[in-house]
Predict the structure of Oxaloacetate decarboxylase, gamma chain.
Amino acid sequence: MSLPLTTFISGISGVFIVMTFLLIMIKLSSKLAIALEKKQEKQES
């Protein structure tokens, strides 16, 4: 009884950690892309 429950909980927590990590990476990459675009605009003008 306890082993399947432990596997289930660890699986859910693992998925949650991966999803949170992906969200953070997406936010960081979008901020980085915006910053790069602003730099390019300043260089062109």
In short: The chain has a mean pLDDT of 93. The CA atoms of residues 31 and 37 lie 10 Å apart.
